[in-house]
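Table 4 source record.
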Amino acid sequence: MILEIAETLLASVFPFKRPVRLLGITLSSLSTEDSGQEPQLALGL
């Protein structure tokens, strides 16, 4: 299922305008429960 979704998303931008060496798909926020963690602070650079 994840592969099918990734292929569908990539089909909208394929073929790429520039060569691509490595392409990855990342999953995050799969849990619907609140983790209780504080948000990450930004660095003032």
